[in-house]
Design goal:
This protein is α/β, with parallel strands linked by helices and 404 residues long. The protein contains 14 helices and twelve strands. Bound molecules: pyridoxal-5'-phosphate. The site of pyridoxal-5'-phosphate has 15 residues, from helix 4.
Length: 404
């Protein structure tokens, strides 16, 4: 362990990865599908490796005169992290930092707030975000925690006015699991006009479908566990920003709170990211097809997916997003018991929490006591994977019919 913690101002900045220049130079010219493949590679020199490897080291050789190199110590930086951060940064159009989990990333962002500041959070935000906000409120770290309806700019404007300057407006779009769509540009403008910092949890959309920094947001948060890594084999998070000072403060959070990711997890996430565009293309096409069929199923009360013309978020999502995403929520006729019966009856869909992997998952969200009460008891969240859509439909149709 190093003798002293780095001074806040001197938390070491990891050296820009070898491919940083490439990513920066090409992010304007190359499409996201290409960036997902090429960003974060070692330099193209004879005999260079094609992938940055799993860098297993707790410390780095420093210079005798200054006592430290650029990285210094394993908690400050790691070449495998830097490769992933370069790729995600290129995709989101900012500078990325990886964290040990999505919640580690959420935690670091909430840690930017001065003591007593207010947090505005969507009624239907991820339940972990709600739970953490509640904990910080209880301890007096946060002032007010105010639920907002992100589909209603008027409601957000009022809450911002009441919160005063220095608040954090937390956005998530589409939300987990109600799939509400927020007008990110409009709400970000409202937030900034009120002197608030604006963060967007972009886990459901991924940078391939929307880039919140381009829409004005200050901070983007990811549960990398989900679509970015994409294979249900790691838990990981990330934060992406453009502002250098914000980045320094977030790096300080990571270094001093110590919620650092393991290099193997980050390697797997980068490998998963290489095929994000292919996985998402297949998953969201299947999701839209399943949503369309489910809307006509007699065992279904309501389907939520922004691809459906009847969905309240359809028009906005069509304008704001490059696709409608791979999560579908279904409210089952017959209530919670019928929904549980569907989960018990599926044979191909995997009854499990989480989402965004290659395998399709199904879950009744209110089985978690921490799930916000705005989520209906009979709601099943479907994470559509990359299996054949007809196989997925037959299994779902049979399970729904058996639960009638
Ligand atoms: C899963 C999830 C998180 C939390 O991420 P972990 O990787 O599980 O810590 C945050 N936000 C959203 C939208 C999520 O789906």
């Amino acid at each position: 362990m190093p003798d002293a913690q780095p001074e806040p101002q001197s938390v070491p900045q990891p050296p820009a990865g070898a491919g940083a220049a490439l990513a920066a130079a090409s992010s304007a010219a190359l499409s996201p599908a290409t960036l997902a493949v090429v960003a974060g590679r070692p330099p193209r020199t004879p005999d260079a490796e094609v992938n940055v490897g799993v860098s297993l080291t707790s410390t780095y050789v420093g210079s005798a005169s200054t006592g430290a190199g650029g990285r210094g110590y394993g908690r400050f930086g790691n070449p495998t992290w830097e490769a992933f951060e370069e790729a995600l940064g290129a995709l989101e159009g900012g500078s990325a930092l990886t964290f040990a989990s999505g919640m580690g990333a959420v935690s670091a962002v909430l840690g930017l707030l001065p003591a007593g500041a207010s947090l505005l959070v969507p009624h239907g935000a991820y339940n972990g975000t709600h739970a953490l906000a509640g904990l910080l409120r209880q301890r007096g770290v946060l002032g007010d925690v105010v639920g907002v309806d992100i589909t209603d700019p008027g409601d957000v404007r009022e809450a911002l006015a009441a919160a005063g300057a220095g608040a954090l407006l937390w956005l998530e779009s589409p939300t987990n699991p109600l799939l509400e769509v927020a007008d990110l540009r409009a709400l970000t403008e409202l937030g900034h006009a009120a002197g608030a910092l604006v963060a967007v949890d972009n886990t459901f959309a991924t940078p391939l479908l929307q880039r919140p920094l381009d829409l004005g947001a200050d901070v983007v948060v990811h549960s990398v566990t989900k679509f970015l890594a994409g294979h249900s084999d790691v838990v990981l998070g990330a934060v992406v920003v453009r502002d250098a000072e914000l980045r320094t403060r977030l790096l300080q959070q990571r270094t001093l709170h110590g919620a650092i990711p393991g290099p193997l997890e980050v390697f797997l996430a980068l490998r998963g990211l290489r095929t994000l565009h292919l996985r998402l293309e297949r998953s969201q096409a299947s999701a839209a097809e399943l949503a369309r069929r489910l809307a006509g199923h007699r065992a279904v009360r309501r389907v939520r997916h922004p691809s459906l013309p009847s969905d309240p978020g359809h028009e906005l999502a069509a304008r704001q997003m490059g696709g409608f995403g791979a999560i579908v929520s279904v409210e089952v006729a017959g209530g919670a018991a019928a929904a549980d019966a569907v989960v018990d009856a599926v044979r191909l869909w995997l009854p499990a929490t989480s989402l965004g992997g290659v395998e399709s998952l199904i879950e009744r969200r209110r089985r978690h006591p921490s799930e916000p009460a705005v989520v209906p008891e009979d709601l099943l969240r479907l994470s559509v994977g990359v299996e054949d859509v007809e196989d997925l439909w037959r299994d779902l149709d049979a399970a729904l019919s058996s639960a009638l």
